[in-house]
Amino acid sequence: MSSALPISNRQQLLRETRDYLLIALGMIMYAVGWTVFLLPNNLPSGAVPGIASVVYWATGFPVQYTYLLINFALLLLALKILGLKFCLKTIFAVGVLTFATPVFQHFVKGSLINDQPFMACVLGASFCGGGIGVAFSANGSTGGTDIIAAIVNKYRDITLGRVILICDVIIISSSYLVLHDWEKVVYGYVVLFISSFVLDQVVNSARQSVQFFIISQKYEEIGQRINKDLHRGVTFIDGVGCYTHNNVKMMFVLAKKRESNTIFRLIKDIDPNAFVSQSAVIGVFGEGFDKIKVK
């Protein structure tokens, strides 16, 4: 009797492993942007790291401990609204960032860019925004205002970057109470704009949708696997081949772009001779996709 996991279970395990690896990558990117470029140059940032930075500049209290304590309270809220699965990945993300922050502070003494605050601002914001975007694309979060953004995005048609931008303007502005330098505050606003823009680009690219037309004699098996493994609907369409005049079944499937490789592998495993057409779509609205946006 084989001890190997069923294909669906293996795919689920690989998908979860991939998510956690992407979240770890995103947190490492964020740690680089925050501790290597922003914090040493006294450039304020948003979210809980922004609060931790202000506390650090005012008291010298390590940023990772402030970040951890605030996120602990916010995670209790997320647990109730967003569910255990989201919280597990968020806890993992918070843990990785909490560990990575002092590591980069220890090995990278000061900043890699000195006396060039704008360049440090651009690079730091790009790393931070990209890191948050990678984490969100893997159904994770860095915690803090990301949790608030995820909650609002769940119920309202507002982009993640916009929610974070609104929340963090107050945090950036409050840094003046410690830094007493409006130039630094302005740089903080630039950090917010760039990180929000990069975040939206990363997340939206991961949410692009595609449509498939699949013709195969094993349409029942392929359709059931797509239903079970990807939780995507499959529509069977009756057709007639022009050359052979044989009756054929054509499957119509809508999925996220990131799921394309999984669908192709699934089809290849079942019927390598299947005919498959894939095309990008501008928008998909309904259950499992975006909500219908009508004002």
From TrEMBL:
InterPro entries: DUF2179, N-reg_PII/ATP_PRibTrfase_C, UPF0750_membrane, YitT. It is found in: Cell membrane. The chain crosses the membrane at residues 20-39, 54-79, 86-105, 117-138, 159-179, 185-203. Gene3D superfamilies: 3.30.70.120. Keywords: Cell membrane, Membrane, Transmembrane, Transmembrane helix. The keyword Transmembrane helix applies. Pfam families: DUF2179, YitT_membrane. GO terms for cellular component: plasma membrane. Residues 232-286 form the DUF2179 domain. It is a multi-pass membrane protein. Its main location: membrane. Coiled coil: none annotated. PANTHER family: UPF0750 MEMBRANE PROTEIN YITT, UPF0750 MEMBRANE PROTEIN YITT-RELATED. This is YitT family protein. It comes from Candidatus Phocaeicola faecigallinarum. The lineage of its organism: Bacteria, Pseudomonadati, Bacteroidota, Bacteroidia, Bacteroidales.
